[in-house]
Amino acid sequence: MFRKLSYAACAFAVGLKNKVDLPDSPLLSDNSVSKLNLQRCLMPRVSAGTGDCQLYVGDRIKRAVGFPQLTACCKPLRYKDFIISYDTKNRIPNWVYEHLQYHKFYKDDPCDRRVNVCPYNEDNQTGQEKPKFHPDCRIHGYHRADVRDYCDTEYELGLMADPANYPFDSEACAETQVMTNVVPIVPGFSCGPWFDLQCYIREKLVRENKSVYVCSGPLFLPSENDGKVQMRFDVLGEGEVSVPSHFFKVIIIETHDGNLELESYMMPNCKPEEGEEVKLDDYLTPLCQIEHASGLIFFPEKKVCFTSNNKRRGARLHAL
Question: What is the C-alpha to C-alpha distance for residues 123 and 86, in angstroms, rounded to an integer?
Answer without folding.
Answer: 32
